[in-house]
Structure prediction request, 435 residues.
Amino acid sequence: MARKRPGRFRRRTAVVGAAMITGLVLSGCGEDDGPPVLTWYINPDDGGQAAIAQTCTEEADGEYRIQTSLLPQDAPSQREQLARRLAAGDSSLDIMSLDPPFIPEFAEPDFLAPVPDDVAEATTEDTLDGALAGAMWNDELVTVPFWANTQILWYRESVAEEAGLEMDDSVTWDEIITAAEDTDTLLGIQGIQAESATVWLNALYESQGEQILPDPTLSSDEIETALDTEAGVKAAEIMHTIGSEGLAGPGVSAMDENQSMFLFQGDDGSFMVNWPFIWTATQAAVEDGDVDQEMLDDIGWAKYPRVDEDTDAAPPLGGINLGVGAQSDHPELAWDAVECIVSPENQVEYFITNGNPPSSAQAFEDEEVEDAYPMADVIADSLDDAAPRPQTPYYSDISQIIQENYTPLSGVDPEGTPPSTDDYVKQVLRGERLL
Prediction:
């Protein structure tokens, strides 16, 4: 479901839409008509990337022009299209918007052009730690952070008060589970068989100071997972409890990010882990009359829940990084364009118009960001502590296995699911079993 935005966001998005039309006009021009044309393969958004392309084209002052080419809607299809083009040596892949989990798969076979030292320094000097970690492979910066995303803990202040729960950075999963049980309310999580299952499981591991893949650089014959560990049992216990006890409602198996938001906005809502789009989407729902202002006024926010009170949470990391194709005809110009695209000013504008948070710490200090997102400091702190999903060229296979084994939540066995998933991963990566 498309997110609606409050009135002032819609007005700004209209301007972005006009810029997108301009970008499409540019895409019809060939290089014979003027300066080199750089193609930027973008993931779907509300027009913000096309607007930035137009801005950076103007700032290039004739050195280059940027045209945008839209990738498919879902991340796996984006990965597939880019992987095929990169493997074929497509020279049109000047700039690419890349999901962090897919970066190792593209970096390992040298599909990505190296990031020049001066570009790396200029574009990451104030990047938040989690966003920077997601741009790397094998301890090397192989892409440039553009925008970053993370989940925070949204809560109904009235429910937290009724449960007697102090909401700060030390609140745990066990505490919010107990609070939901005591107040007869429901938790907003993502229980659908989708990428969100891997996002959640990985955050539960990382929040215990563990990694699903202790050494992600190993070959498929050597790679080992840490699923069958004490951390794995605890993560599975949390997921199983919420599913088997009905703490997310009867529709948990179909609950994605939007569905969990709708649950949270309802009379039975209490606590929810979700991305920052929740704020503008709920504002829009109030404006449209679908949600009462009283509900919006009741929303609080905190950092992602801890697994245990003595270990800091490691929130999920999402977002988009920018890479340059190794076969690009204009790599130097492409990196110049990347520097422009990820400037703090453009990241601020992109956050305000499209709802996608910056990777830049400086951008979070902008007054307009603070006005639009009163929880901006929590988002920034969360991005500093966020942990990427397993960084491996075999990520797609591993994620699919996790999705199959950790849904439905009620079927997760804390003693049986971690070791069986561990074996499944090894067998698939060693070519002993098919997905």
